[in-house]
Amino acid sequence: MQPMRAPWRLALIIFGVALCAAACAQEPWTLSDFYDARNEIRVRIAAVQNAQGDQLKLHAASNESRVWVTFLPSATAPALDSTASLDWWCRDEGQRRSRDAVTHQLAQRSGEPPSSLYHAGAHYVSFVLEHADGLDAPTAAIAALQACEGRLSLGYLDVDGRLAETAFELGGAAAAIAEVADVVRR
């Protein structure tokens, strides 16, 4: 009888690992909410991490009128280029959007200098995705992101000028993005 127990236990362990792997592969979006009572500021963050360790975060603070998006490549990824080059698209056939184009459009609409609408370093790119007054515009970048189904792909240049790509599953993303946007709605 003893020899049969080992394969049974092994089968249970493999089944458990397979269940955990499937759950982790779904890349659920998390929603975090922080409140600073002293300054009366609420910050809400929607985040997802893919299997490679890359992270995508949308965040907004109640004392601002902007929704920001931040991309953080995994710790093992090469450093990003200094131009903060970042493109994204839904599925394989989706329209490509770029950080540069979104920044340019928002700068024209708001009168703010483009440099105030993004910042980047060797290991992150962060930029304003939308202002509060454009959250409900059907052509806004945030509306396109919320309408995206299935998978969001990102392309970016590394410090050596090579193109790198990563992808995030979007299950639950639309609701999480809407929650973040509600922080700056007035």
Can you offer a commentary on this structure?
By secondary structure, the chain is α+β, with helices and mostly antiparallel strands. It is 28% helix and 34% strand. The protein is built from four helices and ten strands. The strands form two sheets. The protein has a six-stranded antiparallel β-sheet with strand order 1-2-3-4-8-7. Strands 6-5-9-10 form a four-stranded antiparallel β-sheet. β1 and β2 form a beta hairpin. The longest helix has 24 residues. It is globular and about 45 Å long. The N terminus is likely disordered.
How many extended strands? 10
**For this entry, what is the oligomeric state of its chains?**
single chain
Encode the helix/strand succession as letters. HEEEEEEHEEHEEH
- CA-to-CA gap between the ends? 69 Å
Largest sheet: 6 strands, antiparallel
Strand content: 25-35%
Note the total helix count. Answer: 4
How big is the Rg? 20 Å
Shape: globular
Helix content: 25-40%
What are its keywords?
34% strand, disordered N terminus, 6-stranded antiparallel beta sheet, 4-stranded antiparallel beta sheet, globular, 186 residues, alpha+beta
Quick synopsis:
The protein is of the alpha+beta class and 186 residues long.
Question: How do the helices and strands line up, and which of them pair or pack?
Answer:
Layout: H1 2-25, E1 30-36, E2 41-49, E3 55-61, E4 66-72, E5 86-90, E6 97-98, H2 99-110, E7 118-121, E8 124-131, H3 141-147, E9 151-157, E10 163-169, H4 173-182
Antiparallel strand pairs: 1-2, 2-3, 3-4, 4-8, 5-6, 5-9, 7-8, 9-10
